[in-house]
Amino acid sequence: MNDQKSNYYVQLILKILLNNEIITTVQLADEIGLSEKTIRTKIEDINYILEEKDLGIICKKPRVGMWLEANEQQRIKLNSLVNNSSNVDILKSDQMRMGAALKLILKNSRNSIITTKQLATQLYLSVPTALKVINECRDWLKIFSIELNIVRNKGLELSCTEVSYRIALKHFILQFEVDTSLDETILYFMPGLNLKSIRKEIIEAEREWSFEFAEESFNEMLIYVSLAIYQNQQNYRKKLSISNEELEMLQRYNEYSFADTIFKKLEIYFQMVLPVEEKAFLSIQILCSKSIDSEFKSDSGKMLREYDKKLQYFVHKIISVVSDVLNVDLTKDETLYRGLLIHMRPTLFRLRYERSHENGMTNYIKAEYKTTFRVAWLISVLFEEYFDLTVNEDELGYIVLYIQSALERNENPIPTILVSTAGMGINQMLCDKIKKHFSMIHHIHVVSFHEFKSEMIKDTKLILTTKPLPVKNSNILEIDDFLSETSIQKIAHWFQKGMLNQLNNAQFGADCHQLFEPDLIFTHLKIKDKEKLIKFLCKKLVSKGYVTTKYGKSVLNREKLTPTSIGNGVAIPHGDQNEINEARVVIATLEEPILWDTEYVDVIFLLVVKMTNEYETKRTQEFYKQYIRLVETDDKVNILRNFDTSIDFYKYLIK
């Protein structure tokens, strides 16, 4: 700790307080040339000193400012001290001495041992005073589950886990070393480290992901990443540990993918291979930093499990609140629960670090699903309660789509036709009775026996007829004119036998839902050139931070090598997974087919998928299984071609 510089600022701040009745933090920062954060830290230290020496106190009032509360004798003594540099050491607090001692202890405990006598000598303290300072250091370190022991004939030793040490060191660097630059302090603990290049690669990763961390979060990352590189260079033996269960859990979070991006760049630059535990540790700190700092947890794995449980409870709470307000029980909808849980992981990442995720369909969603959108605003209160985050309407729009799909699943409306030879009055009575008995039937289209055409079967789930029809189909049921108990049982049996299973068979499972979003689905595009189309789709991905700027070129290069049309008018272009930050599937249907390689294509799935860890591999494999069924016949592909809006297409995929 730079005592001379620190003492200078203590003198300067006290002089200003002595000469001003009231002053704000901003004014003080401008006058001295320090940041507001540093000023606030120094004011706390100075106030502690003043109270300790009985020289008055610094009073603060929000939106007004601060002032020195001291009597005449206290002011005379303070004036004497601040104007006489030889006496300014009297103004050093116990906390400052403890900071200087901690700095030596935290450094030497990694490479060598420092004795009590050596500590006293380096801090210009007597041995008894040094012992007192050591006890204060011991209390501070206990917060981080670190034991400071004095070993006879050896010196001061730290007993702790690697995680505890890293969290304590990060906290010390950011909280105690306010008079020294961050880079200077990091290099004190990690001499010879190429900090400039580490900073550059983290900034490059930020740029590729299209967002910028706040200064405090960036500095935390810089410290942790620097430790990983330095310890690898030094072949440091004390390693991090993480279970397979925790690693699998982490890989579902965007924080892990972001940490992976940073370390891949650093591995290339420094020509080293960093253990997966380093990526896991950094991603846990990014994910749980506020919780870890508030409770100083040393068990990061436990913190991760607690965080994930909290997220699961949060999603259950959302569903419960929506169910209560809409008077519809969605609490047993496993598809909704899993879909929201998977969606919430990256959502919290974006909100926490203010990474914009624009939803171009927000206005459409607000207009089309007014009631659901209004209810969704209740969820914003839960975001504040559980995670202290403010959610915007773009993010709420995505949540609305999950809820709306669940509501429609819950309703299970069945397209129904009634073929009848009776008059209008009897038909109306029959329709009312059918809808009364079967809530899944909302509307019944009535046609006469002579109007019925076999083509109607294709677009209708259930056809009820009061007279035998000339065609046979399992969805055609013959009933009587008055809907007797026999007819009711016949319809009920039809529902039980297979229709409910068919309705609940989603196109894609919840694990794959995060691969899709309405902003990356484009219907009836009028682009007539393959290269222009690929560039258009890749540009959208780059703007959202899902891929690097090199990804589009890798897609085009692959197209030159291998045809990607797969029949039925469908193509599946894809690029280098090393240029992917977040996995996504971009979908486009064309107004007119274009020549792809040797075939004409009008339905395109740009597969931006990864297989860089176990979770990504499993999800990609699951996607392909379900995707094959989605496009296996012309009839199924025609369903995709006929969607007019990206919202309808999206709901079809996740429903």
User: Which value, in Å, is the CA radius of gyration?
Assistant: 33 Å
Number of strands: 13
How much helix, percentage-wise, in residues? Answer: 55-70%
β-strand percent reads 5-15%
How would you characterize this protein structure?
It contains 27 helices and 13 strands. With 655 residues, it is an alpha/beta fold. The strands form 4 sheets. It has a 5-stranded mixed beta sheet. A hairpin with a 2-residue loop joins β10 (565-567) and β11. α15 crosses α16. It is elongated and about 110 Å long.
Give the topology, please.
Elements: H1 3-19, H2 25-32, H3 36-53, E1 57-61, E2 65-69, H4 72-82, H5 94-111, H6 116-122, H7 127-142, E3 147-151, E4 155-159, H8 162-175, H9 182-189, H10 195-208, H11 215-233, H12 244-250, H13 254-270, H14 276-295, H15 300-326, H16 334-352, H17 362-368, H18 370-387, H19 393-411, E5 416-420, H20 424-437, E6 444-448, E7 462-465, E8 476-478, H21 485-503, H22 510-513, E9 521-525, H23 530-543, H24 551-561, E10 565-567, E11 570-571, E12 584-595, E13 600-608, H25 614-630, H26 634-641, H27 646-654
